[in-house]
Design brief:
The complex is a heterodimer. By secondary structure, chain A is an alpha+beta fold. In chain A, 18% of the residues lie in helices and 33% in strands. Chain A has a six-stranded mixed β-sheet, sandwiched between helices. Chain B is of the alpha+beta class. Classes of the chains: A alpha+beta, B alpha+beta. Chain B: This is Glycine cleavage system H protein.
């Protein structure tokens, strides 16, 4: 762990009693004394604070918003040009085979684009953007900013207590706020299925801000363990597991994130890597999987269409216990003929076939402020 | 009470051994969400994987601490796996077993040695 990078909140995590683990090259809190289950439930019931400073924050700037947006559209299959000022979207970088190189959030801040990418991919992502977009677009990593998320039904009250404008933001809005004297960039979004905010703050002011946020009613620090079970119940992908360079957006059931204007027949169709393959009708698809018994079906569990079939029809890419569901939940890929909700399938756990059903996601209803 | 390096405890009761996992093991595992027990009557050898226990973090096995036969299992853990965190060295025993080779018990640790082992 001594080689791992530290976020600006490292010392605070240790002070709060976190168990630190290596994750994507950083020493990160996997849990605090409350424990994974307690932290998960606390986030759904009140509010959780997550350090996500390991993620990459990158600003793209150029001669105009149109220039930046058009350039970014050569890397992603999303409608960037049509993004209103102060709005954010989910997207992904594709490769020439139509696979997903990383998933990301992008937000329009005036004429600039703020892109937030996964920690494990950020080096490659920044290099990709520089190669493809320079010199017309300047790509600047904001290594001097921390990122924290406040998530849960109590998030609005906690953040709005420090800046009332937070309450006026809708899901996927971005805005400048001043929280206890600290100027931050906030977005109303997250990775838990709950209402909440993601807050970009200068690294030097991050610890003070987080202490202030933790002092608000109902806000507790939450580690990576609960972050994973929360996002799994919300049906959200974990890059490198549920989607990767070999899965297309169509296979990943992410077509909702490809706006009409970028699809075949749209005004700005194609023009991103692997456009001819990324959106093709797939032979397999990411689905929710609800095991019928109590045994969790974890990543790698093979899925069959009968108790005795020899060839699998799919596999689990994320799975575990869902504390809010009160039982095991999973997601994975199955052949499209088995992808309909309600299809009875079998997962092989420790050599035993156990019944599992294709299920709609999210497993827990989303609680966004639309 | 005797202890294994696999963080199990064994308590003698009516000529049999009652087996569970230690407080230390329960803390390391985190919240237990699933327990799969062996069938009563199963003959086991030392180090056989006989119980599956899953926490919010991962799956792990409990190994047979000695050779013998399973005589009773704690079914209440199947419906209430969280008991393993609440009372690992008390109510949340996993199984009872006979011991076919009592000399194997001599290789186990006493409490003081176990405390040093985990320190």
């Amino acid at each position: 762990m001594s080689d791992d990078l530290r976020t600006p909140l490292y010392d605070l995590h240790v002070e709060l009693g976190a168990k630190m683990v290596p994750f994507a090259g950083y020493a990160m809190p996997v849990q605090y004394p409350m424990g994974v289950m307690g932290e998960h439930n606390h986030t759904r019931d009140a509010a959780g604070l997550f350090d996500v400073s390991h993620m990459g924050q990158v600003i793209l700037s150029g001669a105009s918003w149109d220039a930046v947006a058009q350039a970014f559209e050569t890397l992603v299959p999303q409608d960037v040009l049509g993004l209103g000022d102060g709005r954010q979207r989910y997207g992904f970088f594709t490769n020439d085979a139509g696979g997903i190189e990383d998933d990301l959030m992008f937000a329009r801040r005036g004429d600039d684009l703020l892109v937030v990418v996964n920690a494990a991919c950020k080096g490659a992502d920044i290099a990709r953007m520089k190669v493809a977009l320079a010199p017309a677009v300047t790509v600047t990593e904001l290594a001097d900013r921390a990122l924290v998320a406040v998530q849960g039904p109590g998030a609005e009250a906690a953040v709005a207590a420090l800046d009332a404008r937070a309450a006026d933001m809708r899901f996927m809005d971005v805005a400048d706020l001043t929280l206890d004297g600290v100027d931050v960039w906030a977005s109303r979004s997250g990775y838990t299925g709950e209402d909440g905010y993601e807050i970009s703050v200068p690294a030097t002011q991050a610890e003070a801000l987080v202490r202030t946020l933790l002092a608000q009613d109902g806000v507790a620090p939450i580690g990576l363990g609960a972050r994973d079970s929360l996002r799994l119940e919300a049906g959200l992908c974990l890059y490198g597991h549920d989607i990767d360079t070999t899965t297309t957006p169509a296979e990943g059931a992410l077509m909702w994130a490809v706006q009409k204007v970028r699809r075949p027949g749209g005004d700005r169709a194609g023009g991103f890597p692997g456009a001819d393959k990324a959106l093709e009708t797939p032979a397999r698809k990411r689905v929710g999987l609800l095991p019928e018994g109590r045994a969790p079906m974890r990543e790698g569990v093979a899925i069959y269409d009968s108790e005795t079939a020899t060839d699998p029809v799919g596999h689990v890419t994320s799975g575990g216990f869902g504390p809010t569901v009160g039982g095991p939940v999973a997601m994975g890929y199955v052949n499209v003929e088995h992808a309909e909700t309600g299809t009875p399938l079998w997962g092989e756990v420790r050599g035993k076939r156990m019944p599992v059903q294709v299920a709609a996601m999210p497993f827990v209803p989303a609680n966004f402020k639309r | 009470m005797k202890f294994t390096e696999e963080h199990e405890w064994l308590r003698e009761e009516d000529g049999e051994m009652v087996v569970g996992i230690t407080i230390h093991a329960a803390e390391q595992l985190g919240d237990v969400v699933f327990v799969e027990l062996p069938e009563v009557g199963t003959t086991v050898s030392k180090d056989d994987e006989i119980v599956v226990i899953e926490s919010v973090k991962a799956a792990s096995d409990i190994l047979a601490p000695v050779d013998g036969e399973i005589t009773e299992v704690n079914e209440t853990l199947v419906d209430n796996p969280g008991k393993v965190n609440d009372d690992p060295q008390g109510e949340a025993w996993f199984f009872k077993m006979t011991v076919s080779d009592p000399s194997q018990l001599e290789e186990l640790m006493d409490e003081a040695t176990y405390q040093k082992f985990i320190a």
